[in-house]
Each structure stands twice: as structure tokens, then as C-alpha cells.
Amino acid sequence: MNEDFNISEELKKLPASPGVYIMHGQNDEIIYIGKAIVLKNRVRQYFQSSKKKTAKILKMVSQITRFEYIITDSETEALVLECNLIKEHSPKYNTMLKDDKAYPFIRVTVEEAYPRIQFARQIKKDKSRYFGPYTSATAVKETIELLQKLFHIRSCNRKLPEQTGAERPCLNYHIHQCDAPCQGYISTEDYAKNVDKAIDFLNGHVDSVRKNIKKKMNDASENLEFEEAIKYRELLDAIEHVAQHQKITDTGSTNDRDVIACARDASDVVVQVFFVREGKMIGREHYHMQIPQDELEGDILESFIKQYYSGTPFVPSEILLGGEIEDVDGIEAWLSNKRGAKVAIKTPKKGDKEKLVELAARNAKLVLTQDKDKIKREEERTLGAMRELENYLGLKGLVRTESYDISNTSGFESVGSMVVYENGRPKKSDYRKFKIKWVQGINDYASMDEVLTRRFKRGIEGSEGFEKLPDIILMDGGRGQVNICEDVLMRLGLDIPVAGMVKDDHHRTRGLYYKNVEIPIDIHGECFKLITRIQDETHRFAIEFHKSLRGKAQTKSVLLDIPGIGDKRRRALMAGFKSMEDLKNATVEEISALPTMNMAAAKQVYDFLHENLALQNTKIKVD
Questions:
Q1: How many angstroms separate the CA atoms of 523 and 531, rounded?
Q2: The domain spanning residue 281 has which CATH number?
Q3: Long-range contacts of 383-391 (CB under 8 A, 24+ apart)
Q4: What integer pLDDT is reported at residue 294 of this predicted model?
Q5: What is the pLDDT of residues 281-308, one digit of tens each?
Q6: Do 428 and 534 belong to one domain?
């Protein structure tokens, strides 16, 4: 589990809203995306004990380290957003459609003199108007049929007005469901009025139609015409399905856009960014900012835009904001230059774009409210732990901590590790590895002296990657390790506090050794937990480095014994196979395919490994 994410605590904060939830795995990759009518109920089910869970779900849940979610205004929006995100991220545990079938749209061919209403699976770059996407193809087809009947919209594929009068009118004209534009019986103006009514219906103004059909359903029921009543009821269901408007996919645009809104309290701001690509919302990110108390929303958004887009390579053609900013023209010009095409910044006041901005603002507010506790816990775990350490040692201003360890196996390839923490968090970019050069055999104290001397000499000389010196050094051990470090610092003329992390007989941290005194620490406190994390990380880093060197050396020593295999071919074998076992299992043809190898050399390797070398149950990493 992600130690920064307390799943049981986060489950308590889930909202009773529709939305999409996103599960993250061990490497923070997205492993599953789902939608929920009520997020609180659906997400909790994954973490409750139940015999009904499938093996797939049990395996997935065991890999979840954290989850996040996006709230929506309806179940339909959640479903469409789920589809968009799944297609974008292809999560491991989602069932993927191989044909990439899309949700249906309703297409109105407004570019034609006599427009038609059609079923569509994709938005094309034409002049037609698209509505949707919808989650039921059946409901879409029934709605199209209803609109054609109600507003006398033609269903034929004749090219009008060019083919006017070419054929007789179809059956729909004779049953009074079409006004026969194919015969010129209705003008383009009157026909356009009917199309406008249909478009008005698709925009959500369905009350009059709904009431009319409901009356027919009730009349049929009262007349005991139950089959007819059922047809009207199913038609009402189809209308309700299509009328449920959603804004997650913008059928009016195929442009890329970012939607930015914020939520704030006295000193903190969360800025939410929705990413809309080719008309579909495919993801979001949120960012924390610290602000002065009197900062205006427009100033916050302007500051965020400048910082965010200066660091991201992609700039969309449109940016929708939750508030007005002052220097719109200047920022538009800057972003247009960066994009190489026109960028428009807008603050929508009505319609779907405004609703999308409002949705971003609601998600930002949710993150701000719920992250307060997490941020507070994180500060206690990191900055709070450093303050505790300062109190124990009577020091001030501790930011950068360095810790060191030595690893070897019977004196083989002794190595040293340097691990760095800043403000209680690991700073892996500053980690360093040392191969012991001056000391032969097993001598941890002498090896530590070498590592520290080399590290701080480089620091004094300003060597790249070593120029930043620590505020405190934590040595893995008591008096002996501390004395070694203090001797090195004294020789080099450096004044840096050094403390030892003292263990008990069970190899568990029990206190700090500082200025010749052992200081007990609260084993339940954050400082104790931080010291333990630093110890474990220092050991892990040293051991991994040592294993990699040992694996290389052992592999190289085996390959040295193969007749006719020189340095170039040894390097090719080590690069071509992950382990010696993989090399042993390879065919002559696979070995010969490597650079610098040929069939004769490959057969030499193959014969040697199978006739002269016992490799039972031996796995050696080749790096």
C-alpha cells in the first residue's frame, strides 16, 4: 500500500455522487477505471470482505495502492467519461473492446437543403450537427424514428433538390409522416422550421412531446389497449434516455481544450484542470497552490496559467476559465506563439461550457476539502518529523539529511551508498553510489571513511552532484560510525552535526547517539518512523547496488571460461539476455542473432553451457 494514502480514511470521504473512480497500482499506474451511480457505495465494495468477488477482482484489489475519482452530474456523464478514460489509458483490469466500438450519436445533416436525422457512431469533420453520445443504441434509433414521425423529417437518401420529382413519393407521405420534399410539396423554409423543432427536442426541450406521449399511453391503458400502452411507455423511456443531457463529450467541437477552475480557503488553493481532446474529456489533474489571503481568483488563475503552460509542451487551442483574468490579450499572444497557432482564452457565462467549468470547480472544492487532512498528515510525517528531530538534538533549520551504508559479501565488491532526504522526503536524484577503491577485504569502518572522504572532498571542490552539503548526517550505528564521520569532517574542516541511529539487540532502532550521549526517542512518534524509513532506504540502496555488481562479476567470470569468446562477444551476451538461465535456455540461432556473434561462436557458447557448466537453480542477473 502507498504509505502516503490511507485507504480506510479515504473511503470515509467518498461523496454520495455519480462519477468515475480510478484505481492505481504498485507503480502508480492506472489499473482499473469504473463508473458509479453513487461513488461512496461502489468504491467501498471493493475493500469489503465478500465471497462473491471473482479471482480477477481479488487480484486487482490486492494491487491497489490508491484511488482517485471525478464527480459528474449524472450517471450518463459518468458512463461516457468512463469510456473516454478507458480508451485513453487502456487499464490492465478493464475489459477492452477490440473493435473500439463507440457510443452512438444522433446526426442532423443541417448542411443539406432538406436535412435528415441519422444514427452515427463517430463525429466526422463535416457541417452536420451531432448530439450525444448516448449509452443506448436502441433508444437512439427509437428517438430518431419518433422525431421523423413527429416533425415529418424525411428518412430517404435522395439528393434534394436535384432529384425533386424523379420518383413517386414513398409510403411515409401517404400515411402523413412526411411532407414529400422529394416532390417539392414543402418549401425549404417550412421544412427548416420542422428541423429546428427536432433540434430543440434534442437540446433537451422535450416537455410538450413527453406530455403528449404520456397522455396517449394513459388513454391506451384506460381503453385496455395494453400492448399499445406498453409501446408508448417504451417510447417515453427512450425519450428520457436521449433527453438526459451530458457535457463530457462536446459534439459541437473537435478542438482540444483545457478547462481550468479553482477552489480556495484562507491560504490554500486547488486548481483543477480537465483535459478535453478532440471533443472528449480524457482526464484531469489538480494542483495545490499557496496564496496570500487577499489574492483574487483572477490573479490566482493568471498565475497558474503562466506557471503551468511555461512547463508543459502541449498548449490546446482553447482554454476555458472559471474566472476573468486581467491580461487576456497578452497571455493569448504568448500561448499562441508557443503553440504556433491561435489560442483562445474564454470565461463562459452560459451553456455546456459554463457547466463544464462549474464541474471542474466542484471537483476542485472536493479535493481541497478532503486533501486538508491528508496534507496535514503528510506534513506531520515529514516536516513534523524533522521538527521532532530538531527538538531531540537541540538544533534548528534542518532541511537536508544524508545517510550512508556499506555493503559487501565476504569482502567481495564492497560498496557504499549515500541516501538524501529533504524536508523529510527522499530526494532520489541526489542519491549516490560508491565502489570501494582504497580498502581491501572486510573493513566497514575503513570503507566508510573512504566513502565519506570522497563525498565531502567533492563537495568542497564543488563537483557536480556533490556541491550541496547536508544540514545533518545520520549514521547507521552508534559511537563507532559517528566517530568515523566526525574524524572525516574534522580533517576536511567541515562543521556538520552527526548523529548515530542506534539499534537494540533485535536490530530495531531504539535511539539517537549525539555528542557522546544516547538520546531515547518515542517509538510511536513521527521522528522514529522517519529514522526507520531512512535506515531501511539506505540499506536497500546499498544492497541493490551490491547485487548488481556481484551479478555482473559472476556472469562475466562464467563467460570468461568459454573458449573463443572475447570482450565484445561477452558484452553482447550480457546485453542480450537478462539472466544466465535465459542464456542457457536460448537456441544456437537466438545466440547467433546477437551483434558480433556468428553460428560458430554461438555453438561454442551453447555447447559450453550445456556440457561443461552446472547451472541448476542458479539465476544470475545480467545488467
A1: 10
A2: 3.30.420
A3: 383/423, 383/424, 384/424, 384/526, 385/424, 385/525, 385/526, 385/527, 385/529, 385/530, 386/423, 386/424, 386/530, 388/525, 388/526, 388/527, 389/472, 389/527, 389/530, 389/531
A4: 67
A5: 777 778 877 666 667 888 889 888 887 8
A6: yes
Range of the domain at 276: 257-369
Tens-digit pLDDT profile for residues 198-240: 887 777 677 777 787 888 888 888 888 888 888 778 777 766 6
Q: Domain check: are 354 and 488 in the same one?
A: no
Read off the CATH number of the domain in which 85 is found: 3.40.1440.10
Is 564 part of a structural domain of the chain?
no
**Total domains, the chain:** 4
- Using the Cα atoms of residue 27, residue 29, residue 32 and residue 36 in order, give the sign of their dihedral: positive
Euclidean distance between CA atoms 198 and 268, whole angstroms: 47
Residue 614 within any structural domain of the chain: no
- Tell whether the model's pLDDT for residue 586 goes beyond 70: yes
- Do you find a cis peptide bond into 161, omega within 30 degrees of 0? yes
- Return d(Cα 527, Cα 509) in angstroms, integer: 11
Asked whether residue 613 is assigned to any structural domain, the reply reads no
106: β partners? 119, 131
Q: Which of residues 487, 517, 548 is at a domain's end? A: 548
Confidence of residue 410 (pLDDT cuts 50, 70, 90): very low
Are 184 and 263 in the same domain? Answer: no
Q: In the 8-state DSSP scheme, what is residue 97?
A: P
Q: Are residues 410 and 441 in the same domain?
A: yes
Angle at 590 between CA 585 and CA 595, to 5 degrees: 125
Of 536, 461, 543, 445, the closest CA to residue 494 belongs to: 461
Same domain, yes or no, for 417 and 524? yes
The 10s digit of each residue's pLDDT in 43-52 is 999 998 876 7
**Alpha-helical runs (H) found in 406-464:** 444-461
Whether the pLDDT of residue 128 is over 80: the answer is yes
Which CATH number covers residue 526? 3.30.420.340
Interacting residues of 376 by C-beta distance below 8 A, sequence separation 6+: none
Same domain, 544 and 420: yes
In this structure, the answer to whether residues 404 and 508 fall within a common structural domain is: yes
Numbers of helices and strands, H then E, in the chain: 20, 19
- Mean local confidence (pLDDT), 174-192: 88
Cα 350–chain centre separation: 31
pLDDT at site 351: 81
User: Quick check: 548 pLDDT over 80?
Assistant: no
Q: Which of 208, 243, 278 is the last residue of a domain?
A: 243
* Residue 437 domain flag: yes
Longest dimension (CA), the chain: 107
Please report the pLDDT score of residue 252 as a whole number: 56
Question: Quick check: 615 pLDDT over 50?
Answer: no
Clarify whether residues 118 and 221 are in a common domain.
Answer: yes
Whether pLDDT at 275 is above 90: no
What's the whole-number mean pLDDT along residues 544-554?
56
| Whole-Å CA distances, 85 to 11, 15, 35, 203, 280 | 22, 20, 11, 25, 9
Helices 328-339, 297-311: axis angle to 10 degrees equals 10
Band (pLDDT 50/70/90 cuts) for residue 99 is very low
Average pLDDT over all residues of the chain? 81
Instruction: Judge whether residue 546 has pLDDT over 90.
Output: no
Q: What is the dihedral angle through the alpha carbons of 456, 460, 465, 471, rounded to the nearest 10 degrees?
A: 70
Output the nine-digit C-alpha cell for 40.
Answer: 461512496
